[in-house]
Amino acid sequence: MSAAPAANPNAIAEAAQPLRLVETEVAKVLVGQRDLVRRLLIGLICDAHLLLEGLPGLAKTTVVKALAQALDAQFRRIQFTPDLLPADIIGTRIYENGQFSVKKGPIFAQLVLADEINRAPAKVQSALLEAMQERQVTIGDETFQLPRPFLVLATQNPLEQEGTYPLPEAQTDRFLMKIKVNYPTATEEKLILERALTRTVPKLSAVLSPAALEAAKVAAESVHMDERLRDYCVNLVRATRDPVAAGVKSLANLIQVGASPRATIALAQAARAQAFLDGRSFATPQDIKTIAPDVLRHRLIASYEAEAEGLDTDALVARLLEHVTVP
User: Fold this and answer.
1) Could you tell me the sign of the dihedral formed by the alpha carbons of 249, 254, 258, 264, in that order?
2) DSSP run (H or E) holding 154
3) Which string of b and e fits 204-236 if b means at least 16 CB within 10 Å?
4) Which pairs count as long-range contacts for 123-126, CB under 8 Å and 24+ apart, including other chains?
5) CATH number attached to the domain at 223-323
6) Matching fold, domains 17-212 and 223-323
7) Burial of 130 by CB count in 10 Å (0-12 exposed, 13-18 middle, 19+ buried)?
8) Chain-centre distance for alpha carbon 55
């Protein structure tokens, strides 16, 4: 497929270099998980929130802390529990010295780790929703803008669902991607063990300034996406809503609810960011196919028929990518 680049390839590569330095820096602490780090950087470039799902002990918190150190960004960790209140997240008005003042909560940071987000009740999740979507917080009758960049990196444990509060669809749709964190390989796990036994804790340096991050965002927006690729994004998402009309009959009756137009936007943005991090000035169909599972898995609701067949949303997305025509 031919695609005329919209920007100088050398300029793209130069703007992407600081992001690749972040990958290298985070790798000092994190063993393996290269795809995870890449997707965190895509979230940064797209100025979007990410949901990380994985079993305990897979370094979800570690990687977010390392990313904050490599960015020299203000970082806050919030442990979500059933007794958490909205004021514990966004802050509250306090009466002090004869007058009311505002005490801001931990949401006022550039990188916010929402640990086990599905353990918080609905009121807390709704308070977080305004912050994620509007980049602002309302305390009493005052509205405060959040710092930039502002990213919520939320984690959830796929096990131990008793006493949890599943995220509403309106909130999950606000996450650019849902990233599955998997077990390390045997070689990686041995290296993790060696580091633990020797108590080797590398010191990270801040290698990406806010100015360089903003320049990277601008450069990523200049990555060329051919009209046929835009149509491909649209066709993929529309096929989740009406598989038969899209020619994917094998998905008929397997998807209860399809993806929203936010998924179309997210696919295109994430694919451009993927191309940018590879140092390319144009996106390809493979960029879209690589990122599609992360963008779509949390935006689909499988039907009872799919569950009866043992098919999860990843399996449905795989069928989608197999049958929708690639430009």
Assistant:
1) negative
2) strand 151-156
3) beebbeeebbeebbebbebbbbbeebbebbebb
4) 123/85, 123/86, 124/80, 124/84, 124/85, 124/86, 124/88, 124/89, 125/165, 125/167, 125/168, 125/171, 126/86
5) 1.10.8.80
6) no
7) middle
8) 17
pTM here?
0.86
CA–CA dist 78, 107 (Å, integer) = 8
Q: Which two tokens stand for residue 30?
A: 């994190």
Q: So where are the chain's domains?
A: 17-212, 223-323
Q: Which of 275, 256, 308 is nearest to 19 (CA)?
A: 275
Q: Is 275 helix (H, G, I), strand (E, B) or coil?
A: helix
Give SS3 for 115: strand
> What are the distances in angstroms from CA 311 to CA 59, 220, 238, 307?
27, 35, 20, 6
Residue (of 217, 121, 101) closest to 167 by Cα position: 121
Q: What is the pLDDT along the chain (327 residues), one digit of tens a residue?
A: 444 445 677 788 888 888 888 888 888 888 777 888 889 999 989 989 999 888 777 777 888 888 888 887 888 888 888 888 888 888 888 877 778 888 888 899 888 898 888 888 888 887 887 788 888 888 878 888 888 888 889 888 776 655 566 777 777 888 999 998 888 889 888 888 888 888 767 788 888 887 788 888 888 998 999 999 999 999 999 999 988 888 888 888 888 888 899 999 999 999 999 999 988 889 999 999 999 999 999 999 888 988 888 888 899 999 999 988 888
Tokens for 137, please give them: 């917080």
Q: What is the CATH T-level fold of the domain 17-212, as seen in this structure?
A: Rossmann fold (3.40.50)
- Two tokens, residue 123: 């009121």
> 3-state class of 315 per DSSP?
helix
Nearest to 146 by CA among 105, 190, 185, 86: 105
Give the DSSP H/E element, type plus range, for residue 180: strand 175-180
Q: In the structure encoding, which two tokens stand for residue 250, read together? A: 């094998």
Residue 120 CB: number of other CB atoms within 10 A?
A: 26
